[in-house]
Amino acid sequence: MPWPAFAYDPAKTIALTRVYNISGIPSLILLDSSGRVITNHGRSSLLEDPTGRYFPWGPRPLYELNEYTVCRLRDEPSLILFTEGSADDIQFSLSVMDSLSKRLFEERLKIEERRQEEAEKKCEENAEQGNGLSKSASSEECSSTGSDLPIPPQADPLQLLYTGEDPICDHILESILGLGDVELPLICIVDGLAGHLCVCDRPDVSEAVLEEFVAEYRAGKLQWTPLPAADQSAPKSVGGIPGAIIEQALITHSPSQNSIGGAKEEVKAV
């Protein structure tokens, strides 16, 4: 398997961090044969799936919240179904979330397809207006960043997760979301980028309740509350993962704040 590389150059490194929205190093990003991003979470994807069950590790309709998927909470708003995490609870979560997760995933794929078609069309239009050099640059730009553009706002991005036995689930529920006293099962939508969450107030969890909750989210009818401040008495690490890292996965800063280096800063390997 070829491993293309280029000579170390701070300017190129900074450019790559901006193109692929890298917030820290080391970072492993998986690309397809045309240079489009498959996932920005290459390291966690491979650690979670050493046998290659989910190859080529693209997006999935539904994720179990654990040490390998917690990093995804910083990507976009997340609907999480919290349970006690027993085998029966996991089976229940998979059952009630199956239909909704598949429908939202199909919608996402269609949006991605339309977005890619629009990006390619724009590249072709730019190429027709320029010379051969600009055509080459436009093609490279289209292939490297086309699938990593933000999902249109009208798509209302929402990823779905359920909890299992990983201790990270309890830590997030109790120490980060401040919902340790709430009765389970519990549905909530967490938006780490905006710094707020909404808890579903329905007493029961079912397919119909999930569908209604998502419909209200898309209609902008939910009542949001700010994410609480970090609990200073919370454990410093959970499952070997520092608590600060888990909190960062939920409460993040803008890409510009997380960029590595700057125009006049030296980039250092960690």
Chart the SSEs and their pairings.
Elements: H1 10-19, E1 30-31, E2 37-39, H2 42-48, E3 63-65, E4 78-82, H3 87-129, H4 132-145, E5 159-163, H5 167-176, E6 186-191, E7 196-199, H6 207-218, E8 225-226, E9 237-238, E10 241-242, H7 243-250, H8 255-258
Parallel strand pairs: 3-5, 4-5
Antiparallel strand pairs: 1-2, 4-6, 6-7, 7-8, 9-10
Helix pairs in contact: 3-4, 5-7
Describe this structure in words.
With 270 residues, the chain is an alpha+beta fold. It has one domain (10-255): 3-Layer(aba) Sandwich (Glutaredoxin). 40% of the residues lie in helices and 13% in strands. The protein contains 8 helices and 10 strands. Strands 3-5-4-6-7-8 form a 6-stranded mixed sheet, sandwiched between helices. A two-stranded antiparallel sheet has the order 1-2. A two-stranded antiparallel sheet has the order 9-10. Helix 3 runs antiparallel to helix 4 (132-145) and helix 5 (167-176) packs across helix 7 (243-250). The chain is globular and about 60 Å long. Residues 133-140, 143-154 and 253-270 have low confidence and may be disordered. One of its GO terms (biological process) is negative regulation of Wnt signaling pathway. This is Thioredoxin-like fold domain-containing protein. Residues 134-147 have a biased composition (Low complexity).
